[in-house]
Amino acid sequence: MSALLVGESVCKYFGGLKAVDDVSFELAEGEILGLIGPNGAGKTTLFSVAAGSVPATHGRVLLDGKPVNGKAGYRSVHQGICRTHQIVRPFARLSVLDNVLVGHHYGSPEGSHSSPRDRAMEILDFIGLAERANQLPGELTLAGRKRLEVARALATGPRVLLLDEVVAGLNPVEGKRFVDLIRQIRERGTSIIMIEHVMHAVMGLSDRIMVLDHGRLIAEGNPQDVAHDPQVIEAYLGREDDEDGETVTPSAEERHDA
Ligand SMILES: Nc1ncnc2c1ncn2[C@@H]1O[C@H](COP(=O)(O)OP(=O)(O)OP(=O)(O)O)[C@@H](O)[C@H]1O
Ligand SMILES: [Mg+2]
């Protein structure tokens, strides 16, 4: 497999804080790469750099050998990379269908000869929201809003999809449905990097895992090896705060609810 997305010594500093500190990575075509680490490790910041929404302080990200533009997010969407947001951000006054149409217009979906509306409905059907097309996002459950976030990203026609905590905060049944959905997205040809605190989801889905701690890449490898890495256990997995070990640290929603 050849590398589709490459990060070269990516650094992102906020003043004196090294949120991402010299992180290099590769995502192969068709791969699911898991990104884990404690709260504040720099995972979302690395996504923001990779998606072109914030410029790197040093280093760069290349998609198909071309630098991802660090100034305007829409350009990277045109290049074929799209991210979801940890705190879902639907357009509150637009219907579910119109939210997906925005994604379609914003991106450059290829390989579809159907009308934007038909394409958007096709995505809503795939994602399991077709019956909610005319509702407002506020009428959906959290799981529904997370599905909508993914649908809108898919509508841009991404080659690389960056999923930021899409399973965290869902109940076990909804979480399992999401895991199946992510698998199907990959089967349809999209390569994925997923940030996730729900261990069974990220360990079960990922071909490889990267672990960040204090902005640094502290481990990388297959899920089994990473789960047994003493440094990872010390920095992250050892901090299990619920009895069944499902979620290592609280999700964004849980943190906001607290
Ligand atoms: N825009 C910003 N300005 C200043 N500091 C920031 C900014 N965004 C993030 N940070 C800081 O950078 C560090 C990394 O944050 P980031 O959100 O990337 O972590 P994370 O790994 O996604 O954590 P979580 O699991 O809680 O979502 C944190 O210390 C955070 O407070
Ligand atoms: Mg985050």
Summarize the structure in words.
The chain has 258 residues and is α/β, with parallel strands linked by helices. The protein has two domains: 177 residues, P-loop containing nucleotide triphosphate hydrolases (Rossmann fold, 3-Layer(aba) Sandwich); 67 residues, no CATH class. Helix content is 35%, strand content 24%. The longest helix is centred in the last third of the chain and has 16 residues. The site of adenosine-5'-triphosphate has 12 residues, from strand 2 and helix 1. Adenosine-5'-triphosphate binds next to strand 2 and helix 1.
TL;DR of this structure?
This protein has ten helices and ten strands. By secondary structure, the protein is an alpha/beta fold.
Uncertain segments are: none
Distance between the termini: 43 Å
Quickly count the helices: 10
CATH homologous superfamily title of the largest domain:
P-loop containing nucleotide triphosphate hydrolases
Class by alpha and beta content: alpha/beta
CATH architecture heading of the largest domain: 3-Layer(aba) Sandwich
Shape: globular
